[in-house]
Amino acid sequence: MNQGFNIYDMWKDYYSQTSKLFDEKIGKDFPSEGMGQILEMNLQFKKMIDESTLKYLEFMNVPSRNDIANLSSLIVNVDAKVDDLEERLEEKLDQDRNQESFSRELSSVKKEMKSLDNKLNQILTLLKSQEVTK
Amino acid sequence: MPTDWNELIEFTPQQYKEMFQRAVRASEVLTTDAEPEVGPTPKELIWTRNKTKLYRYISECPKKHKIPLLLVYALINKPYVLDLTKGGSLVEYLVNRGFDVYLLDWGEPGYEDRNMKLDDYIMDYIPRAVRKVLRKSNVDEVSILGYCMGGTITSIFAALHPELPIRNLIFMTSPFDFEKTGSYGAMLDERYFNIDKVVDTLGVIPPEMIDFGNKMINPMATNYGPFISLYERADNENFIKSFKLLQKWLNDGIQFPGEAYRQWIRDFYQNNKLIKGEMVIRGKKVNLENIKANVLNLAGKNDLIAQPHQVEALMNAISSEDKEYRCLPVGHTSITFGSQAVKITYPTIAEWLEERSN
Predict the structure, then answer these.
(1) I want to staple B126 with a disulfide (CB 3.0 to 4.6 A). Which of A83, B74, B77, B157 is the partner?
(2) What is the pLDDT of residue A1?
(3) Is B6 helix (H, G, I), strand (E, B) or coil?
C-alpha cells in the first residue's frame, strides 16, 4: 500500500477549504429571512402542541406546567420576603451595634468630663484656700 | 470482534494503525468516558435567594489583600468555567495569590422565573450580594469582575448604585456597544426575528436555542471543528482533558428567563440602548458616566461573541480616572481557560487588582 496516500488528509483538506468558504459566506450574507421563517414555523408548532396539551390536562384534571409554575412562584415570593426581612434584620443589628458603641463612647466621655470636673473643683478649692491664708 | 479488528490492523501501515487508534480513543471520549469533575476550589455557601447562590472560596493561603473580589457571571451558562479544573482555574489562581474571592451563581431558572427581568437581577440580586460580601469580609469596599454578559449587567448595576462602595471593576469580554455585531445583528434583525413571539411562546428560552445562535456565527468551525481536532489529537491526553472540560461546559447550558431575554435582545441587540444612554432599568435611566471606580476592561482579539470594538466602547462612556483597556490574544472562552489564559489573563487580572486592593 502506498504510504503517501492518505484518504483522511485528502478529506481534511477538502473539508478545511469548504468549511472556511461556508463560514465566510454565512458571515457575509447571513440567511436571516430563512432562519426567521424556520423559527416562526417551529414556534407555531410549539404553540399548537402547548395549547392542545393544556386542554388535555385540563380535561383530565391534571395540573399543568403553568399550575406548578404558579405554585413555585408563590414559594419564590415567600423566599424573597424572607430574604428582605433578613436584610432588614441585619441592618437593624448593624444599627444596634453602632448605637451600642455610640452609647459606650458617650458614657466614657461622661466619665472623663466628671473626672475633669472633679479636678477643676479641687483646683478651685485649693486656690480659694490659698487666697484665705493670704 | 474488536480483537479481530486489532489483529487486522496489525498488518496495515503505521499511519493507518495510528489513525485507527486515534479513532478508537476519540469514540471512547465521546461515548464511554466519564464526565470530568469541575469546580475544584472549595467554597462555602454565604447566601441564597430563589435559585441564586453566593459562594465564598475557602483556601489555606493567607489573605494578602484587603478588598474582596466578587465574580458575576452571565445568565446563559454555568459559572464553573471560572473554576474549571486544577491548574486551569481563574478562581484558584486568584485565591492562591491571596484574594478573598466570592462568586455569584445565578442558578438554573425554571418556568416559574419566566417573568424575571434584568431589572430584578440588577436591582435586587447584585446589590444584596455586594452587601453580603462587605458584611462577611468586614470591609468598606469591594471589587467586582463581570464576565461576558455578567460584565454588561455589572456596568448597569454600578451606574445605578453609586451609593455602594465599589473600588475596582473588571470587565472580561463584556459587550457594551451593540451597533455592529456581525452575524448576531443579522440573526436578530427585528424584521425576521420576532422576539415577542419567541418569548410569549416559549416562556423560558431553552439553552439549545442560545447555543444554536452562538454556533451560527461560525457554523462549520464551531459545530465540527472541535470533533476534528479531537480525532487528530486523540493521542494527546492533555488535549482530551481540555476537550472534555470545555464540551461539558458548552453542553451544560441553562434556561434564560423569557422577560430578561426579551430585554437583552430588544434593548441591547436591536436598539443598542446601553451605550446611547437610553436604557431604563426599573424606571431609572442608566448613565454609564456615573461609573467612577477603577476599571480594567479586557477584550479577546479573536472573540466573535463580544468583539473588541464592542468591548472598547465602554472606555469613552465612563468617567473613571483610572481606566485601562487591554485586547488580549485570546477568544471568548480561552480568556478564562487554556494555556493562554494561565499565561496571560490570570496574571493581567491579578497584577492590576493587587495594585488596587489594599
Answers:
(1) B157
(2) 46
(3) helix
